[in-house]
Write a structure and sequence with these properties.
Layout (H helix, E strand, L loop, with lengths): L7 H13 L2 H8 L3 H15 L4 E4 L2 E4 L1 H23 E2 L2 E2 L1 E8 H18 L3 E8 L5 H4 L3 E6 L6 E8 L3 E3 L2 H4 L13 E4 L4 H9 L12 E2 L2 H9 L4 E4 L5 H6 L14 E7 L6 H15 L1
Parallel strand pairs: 5-6, 5-7, 10-11, 10-12
Antiparallel strand pairs: 1-2, 3-4, 7-13, 8-13, 9-12
Length: 291
């Protein structure tokens, strides 16, 4: 099919219908009538000589031919959208898509982001936060900042820094803690990583509290620290990511013992070409760490 005759309106109607599996919802997105979307898709099917959807009483079911066409159409529209976003007021802007574990975003990145924007005004960051479970390929990320060992399949990882863990709580609770053994009477807040508190108690030489694996479980240190601020218990979290709370006195670190179970890493898929925006961000973040 030669380029001048590409049925762009029909392809757009198909792509929206495939995402929603509904002509009606596709029509709402595209600000046209349901009949217009249906006719566009029918015209595309007639042109291709195949059915792209099965029409069901309640919605649509995409056919094998539709599934074969959809990834290419979606990627093409996404690429066009990204290119159009880069052009603003006659100046080409660079887009960079960054996934960040929430604790790092709140505790380290956001307080420094104004400096990056000042140094690189024509790079637009698109930031999505996560709980360390991320799929860079599916989410279209240029970089993902993750916590762990640095070993992820098909990924290039550059170590940023360690983030040791230690108990953190409000001063009222800390007043009741004279030694690690006193944590046996406290509510221990933990993440989905079940070995953290046990490892910390082992480092202190004290047998783990009975409720190490009980209580409230959080999918991020940000949520866990909010619970600690509310006085719900003692969190095991990285003090370096919550320095503002420590400096203000809202949170205290009752014991000096820390454990390290991993580091933060700047990662990208090995198959991902490095753009100028990615190089600028990488240079900036490592220069900030070296300060």
């Amino acid at each position: 099919m030669v380029r001048p005759f590409l049925p762009l309106n029909s392809l757009r109607a198909f792509e929206a219908s495939a995402r929603h599996l509904s002509f009606t919802r596709a029509a709402i997105e595209l600000c046209v009538t349901q009949a217009a979307v249906s006719q566009q898709v029918k015209g595309l099917e007639k042109r291709l000589g195949v059915a792209l959807f099965q029409r069901l009483p309640r919605g649509l079911k995409i056919t094998a031919e539709g599934e074969a066409l959809l990834p290419t159409v979606t990627a093409s529209f996404d690429q066009m959208a990204k290119t159009l976003d880069r052009i603003e007021a006659g100046q080409v802007r660079e887009l960079m898509f960054l996934g960040v574990v929430g604790t790092f975003a709140v505790g380290w990145l956001l307080p420094r982001l104004a400096d990056f924007q000042r140094r690189h005004p024509f790079i637009d960051l698109r930031i999505s936060t996560n709980n360390n479970r991320v799929d860079p390929a599916a989410e279209g990320l240029d970089f993902a900042i993750r916590f762990g060992s640095g070993s992820w399949h098909g990924t290039q990882a550059e170590r940023l820094f360690e983030a040791p863990l230690s108990p953190l709580c409000i001063p009222k609770l800390a007043d009741e803690l004279r030694s690690p053994a006193d944590l046996a009477g406290a509510t221990l807040l933990r993440s989905y990583r079940t070995d953290e508190w046990s490892t910390w108690f082992q480092a202190t030489g004290v047998p783990p509290a009975a409720q190490v694996n009980a209580g409230i479980v959080f999918d991020s240190s940000v949520g866990m620290m909010e619970a600690a601020l509310q006085g719900l218990g003692v969190a095991l979290a990285p003090p370096s990511m919550f320095s503002r709370h420590l400096c203000s006195g809202a949170i205290v670190q009752p014991f000096a013992t820390v454990i390290s179970l991993g580091s933060y890493w700047l990662t990208r898929l090995q198959s991902r070409p490095v753009t100028a925006a990615m190089r600028a961000f990488s240079d900036w973040i490592f220069s900030e760490i070296e300060r």
